[in-house]
Amino acid sequence: MSDQVAEHLLAPIAIGLPLLGLALALAIGQGLKPLLEVSRQVARCDAQRLAPLPSRDVPAEIKPLIDQLNGLFGRIAESLANERRFTADAAHELRTPIAAIRAQAQVAQQARDPDTRNHALDGLVRGCERAAQLIDQLLTLARLDARAGPPQGHCDLLPVVRTVLAELAPWAHGRGIALELLGDESVPVPADETLLLQVLVRNLVDNAVRYSPAGQTVTVRVAAEPRAVRLEVLDRGPGIPAAERDRVLGRFYRLAGYEEGAGLGLSIALRIAELCGARLELLDHPEGPGLCATVRFPKA
Fold this sequence. Notes:
This protein is of the alpha+beta class. The protein folds into two domains: about 75-145, Orthogonal Bundle (Helix Hairpins), CATH 1.10.287; about 155-300, Histidine kinase-like ATPase, C-terminal domain (Heat Shock Protein 90, 2-Layer Sandwich), CATH 3.30.565.10. The protein is about 60% helix and about 15% strand. It contains seven helices and seven strands. It has helices at about 1-45, 65-110, 115-145, 155-175, 195-210, 245-250, 265-275, and strands at about 155, 180, 190, 215-225, 230-235, 280-285, 290-300. The strands form two sheets. Strands 2-4-5-7-6 form a five-stranded mixed β-sheet. A two-stranded antiparallel sheet has the order 1-3. Helix 2 runs antiparallel to helix 3. The chain is elongated and about 120 Å long. The protein starts with a helix and ends with a strand.
């Protein structure tokens, strides 16, 4: 009796399990077919032109995956476009000082008059300094673009401002510009590297000194607000029209008639402010003509 019971139980299982396995294999294969098609489409994508994957007539289960992939492709394409534009702009900007250096070197080679030769050599030195400054700014931007995430520590803003103003004072004095610091209290701000703050302050003060007429004063003010720390750099230069303020924060953009610099100082300051969780604004001078560059840091 037990043999008969076992035979009646095992016979359907022996026949049914292979059939069930075959049915499952067919069903799983049919269910994974859209994923296999998506994988083939991804494999066929051109790395230089990431076109979005078609999202029509796809199962609802994998549509979120395709939407996320298309979003990723869009961000990668935008990043590649920015890199190409940055490379082209950098090459164009480097060509100008290099061409000036070459021209001045040729003049110095052919000059017979010592005054002409010395004048050409002075221009050669200025061209080298401009190229070196541009390369330093490009390297700074490359390092900043590689950073991600909020700052992990904090540092006192006021000593950083004092250090930067002490370093720039001889250069500003040579241009007939006085530097003034207002603020006498400790104001910690979120920044994991003092160097970042030094570059931010230096670029804002450098920009203010470059476009201020001789005999004027560039004022740097540090003040604590209830929920923020405010850094202001005020100059008495020509200012920036309101319609141009967003554009001057972009890379390699210079106002018409102002050819000094490479148009990177404010964009570097904006990137550092973003890394520190701060907000950079360009406003009118509160007491007349000029510009007020304001950075508001969250309190550490």
